[in-house]
Amino acid sequence: MRRRITFSRNLTLSLSRTCRCYCKYCAFATHKAHLYSPDEVLEILDRAVSRHHVKELLVLTGEKPEVNREVVARLNEYGHDDFVSYVVWTCERALERGMLPHTNLGVLPREELARLREVTASQGLMLESTNPDLVVHQGSPTKHPGLRIETITAAGELKIPFTSGILVGIGESEEERVAALEQLAELHERHGHIQEVILQNYVPHQNYYGREPAQIADAATREYWRTGVWDGPRLDAPGWACEVTLEDMKRLVGEARRLMPGVGIQVPPNLSDWWTELVRAGATDLGGLSANGDHISPEHPFPSPGEVRKRLRAEGLALSERLCVYPEYIDPTWISRPVMDVIKTRYWSFIPRHGSGRRVDLQVADVAAPRAIQRARDGVALTPEELTALFAETRPSVIAEMRAAADELRAELAGDTVTFVVNRNINVSNICTVGCAFCGFGQSRRSPDAYEHSEEEFVRRVGEAVAFGATEICMQSGIHPEWGLEDYEKWLRVAKRTAPELHLHAYSPMEVAHMCDVSGLAPRAVFDRLREAGLGSTPGTAAEVLHDGVRERISPNKLPVARWVEIIEASHAEGIRSTVTVMFGHVEEPWELAEHMRVVRELQERTGGFTEFVPLSFIPFHTLLGRTHGVEEISREENLKHTAAFRLALGRTVTNLQASWVKMGLDAATESLRWGVNDLGGTLMEESISRMAGSYHGVRLTPEELVAAAHRAGRPAAERTTLYDIRRRYALPPDDSGRPRLWPARMASGGGRSA
């Protein structure tokens, strides 16, 4: 999978800086009374929602502010018996506004952690070091590692998603750094609650006596995000500090990965210029890129998410938002009901897929999926409940039955031959007015990434396709605001004039709907003109999920389901066959995929015009959905399960099921030949839509590579035309004995009907 680097879009609230500790590195704490009033808290929260659109409220405080009598008096005035009560009130107000609280109050007893658990999504406490004798901690008894380990342990026992870490450069030895990571690894091994480890390098600070670090941080951040120029102080380290080098930090990243595989490794991108080097070394997270700055290091503003995204993209990496609680902990076992309700209401797309619905609890009878499998074997149309059950299924034994039944249907309908087409994609322009949240391809006219091929360039690409041996050109573009029907006809005519023998598979239903809108013609009339210009068949793309609720969520400007169906029916009525697609693995729910398959099957039963069904797993990396909604790439296992479900849902209505190797990778596509697939698609030669969304599986395969994939699966291969006429066959090569090669045993056992 492509590496995603995560961050949390948060805002920091330094509720109280009053602290009982005297750490020598700290410029945040004060020993005077400091406490925001309720009115100030509400003003900050409202501004966070309206101006910054944050998802996390990071509550930072000094340790035990009640040591100051004036703070106690103010708390009593505000109606609170202790400071934790005021923090709970603050977190409740944040939850009301849709923000998820993450608190870091220092060392706390178990009962106070438990009180906070009810209103927080996660909590944190830096271990810092296991050395109890550091000069920097003198006068700060709660910095003793034993006390901090007690708090981290109690958080694990209470099942609190927890963030911890070490502070590097405060006088510790290299061995002590590793020992601190080993201590955290031991605690995580015991309780499984540490979601991320922060590797934070120490930087010297000024003394902010008499000034408010929050105001300094906010001003520094606004100036840095506006200009991109940082001109903060570079101070000499004090005598108790020790040097920290890039190599030191890279070694710690490696140690953290070794000791705590699967735990996030966070490096602050505002405290050094080397954070990209640490990402290359294996760091996975950049923390909260706080819109109002770093209150601990106020003159070191975080880079903006846009700037970070640009730098990571140059490294081939994707930046994605996360919540303050990591995905694997978004579960009632770890999260209280009030917090879980906010996540389900506001941030349900961040909830990991486990087969069932993420917005509401999905209730499907245990017998629904097994019953659906048996009925699908017989080609019977499945009920909405049965279709939903297939997409929601998680039991390995039932999924194995799905695979076997899908493979059996494939064998019955399409035989053992694995087909492919030698084709070329040409995306003439990526200029688009629609603005789909799932798309990394479309660009506005003014975008520096926008393009539009000249006729000369288009002809060159067609010529390359002919030289490659292609029989098909697949042509789709964005919805160009200046193109009329005549422009779409022009590209078809130019292609036919250049290479009359090529089949032109062109123009999505969205493009055809646009042609209807700008020409005033009905869909059938538009298809009549396109056929005269050279159109051979229609891609059934722009389907995404044929459920208007999903379409509203991911692309409200896209044509509705009824219009998509109308366009495809018009294509079929004009004798122009089409493919049909589904884009899955994003924010859709199982019952919404069930509706998609109902629409597809009923349409095929009416027209018989679909040549193939093409599942397209969502590529999240450089798309708005992936960047801001926590949508991760669907797993290989879920991808294959869905593939089998699609075959079963279609029954005997559509013969051909295609695997998109550019979406799922050739290895997974080869494996999908056991899950109901009989076609590996095309050679493509170029593919801009998936590539610009972040696909990392390449954009071109040769016929030899596709034949080899089929043979690795123990199946013969054949090159086909767009409409599935066979052009040439590639028999399985003999084994070393000269006999015809047999299927691998694990494949041979999957094709027969179960007793």
The count of DSSP E runs of length 2 or more, i.e. the number of strands, is: 21
| Unreliable residue runs | 742-755
Overall pLDDT: 91
What is the count of DSSP helices, taking H or I runs of 4+ residues?
28
- How much helicity do the residues have? 40-55%
What general outline do the C-alpha atoms trace? elongated
SS-based structural class?
alpha/beta
What share of the residues does DSSP label as strand, in percent? 5-15%
Largest sheet: 7 strands, parallel
Radius of gyration (CA) equals 29 Å
**Biggest sheet: strand arrangement:** 2-3-4-5-6-7-8
N-to-C CA distance: 38 Å
Question: What tags apply to this protein structure?
Answer:
single chain, 755 residues, alpha/beta, 7-stranded parallel beta sheet, 4-stranded mixed beta sheet, 28 helices, elongated
Overview of the structural elements:
- The chain has 755 residues and is of the alpha/beta class.
- The chain contains 28 helices and 21 strands.
- Strands 2-3-4-5-6-7-8 form a seven-stranded parallel beta sheet.
- Strand 6, helix 6 (174-191) and strand 7 (194-201) form a beta-alpha-beta unit.
- Helix 5 (145-157) runs parallel beside helix 6 (174-191) and helix 15 packs across helix 16 (485-498).
- Residues 742-755 have low confidence and may be disordered.
Give a short overview:
The strands form 5 sheets. The chain has a 7-stranded parallel sheet. A 4-stranded mixed sheet has the order 19-11-20-21. Strands 12-13-14-15 form a 4-stranded parallel sheet. It has 28 helices and 21 strands.
Task: Give me the secondary-structure topology.
Blueprint: E1 4-8, E2 10-16, H1 38-52, E3 56-61, H2 69-77, H3 83-96, E4 100-104, H4 110-117, E5 122-124, H5 145-157, E6 162-168, H6 174-191, E7 194-201, H7 213-227, H8 246-259, E8 264-266, H9 275-281, E9 285-288, H10 305-314, E10 318-322, H11 337-346, H12 368-377, H13 384-392, H14 396-414, E11 418-421, E12 423-426, H15 455-468, E13 472-475, H16 485-498, E14 503-506, H17 509-519, H18 523-533, E15 535-537, H19 548-554, H20 561-573, E16 578-584, H21 590-607, E17 610-617, H22 624-628, H23 636-650, E18 656-657, H24 661-664, H25 666-671, E19 679-682, H26 688-693, H27 703-712, E20 717-720, E21 726-730, H28 745-748
Parallel strand pairs: 1-9, 1-10, 2-3, 3-4, 4-5, 5-6, 6-7, 7-8, 11-19, 11-20, 12-13, 13-14, 14-15, 16-17, 17-18
Antiparallel strand pairs: 20-21
Helix pairs in contact: 5-6, 6-8, 12-13, 12-14, 13-21, 14-23, 15-16, 16-18, 17-20
